[in-house]
What does this fold into?
Amino acid sequence: MKKIAAVLISVFFLFAFAACAQKPVPEEPAVEPVTLIDQAGRTVTVEKEPDRIVSGYFISTSACIALGLEDRLAGIEAKAGERNIYKLAAPGLLELPNVGTAKEFDLEGCIALEPDLVILPKKLQDSAEIISGLGIPVLLVSPESHEDLIEAVSLIAASTGTEQRARELISYYSDAEANMKSLTEGAQKPVVYIAGNSSYLSTAPKDMYQASLIRAAGGQNAADSIEGDNWTEVSYEQLLSMDPEVIVIPAEASYTAQELIGDPALAGVKAVKNNNVFVMPSSFEPWDSPVPSGILGTMWLTSVLHEDLYSFDDFTGDVADFYGRFYGFTVDTALITK
It folds into this structure.
């Protein structure tokens, strides 16, 4: 009887295992293609979530880091070694192949990386059409305002399956912008002149991103009477006529504050007379650019213009929080200057 029972038990388990083996393995749900309208007005379809991304623009590369995509980047723009944020947040990017710059884009090099998504600045539309013709989706981005930056981040997120991360980033950005506006509501708006990178005799006209940064920080752009959305040269006479109360020098300027202050032709400008010339910190990213951390440029300038409403100590704490949350590194607050 014991032998018969043992046989029966063996047969039972044999059939049980066979039944389990015949059960179909559930397939992973198929990822639906995503169709988007990029910032050049082009229709772009991404058939599958990309594993190999080429970013030919430092703004989109920074956005990719903030969205947690650094491990999917297969190539990035040239001069990556000059970007402190890469060294701090994603040093592995420094080893990636580069695809040149907007002025000298390496089209063949980009294609050779076999990307399944390419992100380029809007001015590279001709190259984008050639790459798209090979069946590779290309997003063109043009973040020239706070709103455009949010749209660019949303486009990258939608094409890479990182929408939740983008929602967190955009929420932080929008909340911080609203907070700065609330803090400075009703406050006096000092006249601010933001100088260009190559010369302090160039500035941001009213439709440029840097002009919107000044307004968001509770200031008045000295060059709002000038039309345009690119750095514009001005004469000494124009700058003296603007007579700004505050002058801001961007992080990537090719000159120093001492050179500007020491220019005898500017001795009569209020900002120079009152020593209200400030240089944006250069240890992280150019906060006067439309990168995801650009909101920190607004916050920095708010602390400069309205320190009684938003202290510099509060600002440094917010910088540490932002980079810890979205870029994954600990900030040395001693590097945050004004």
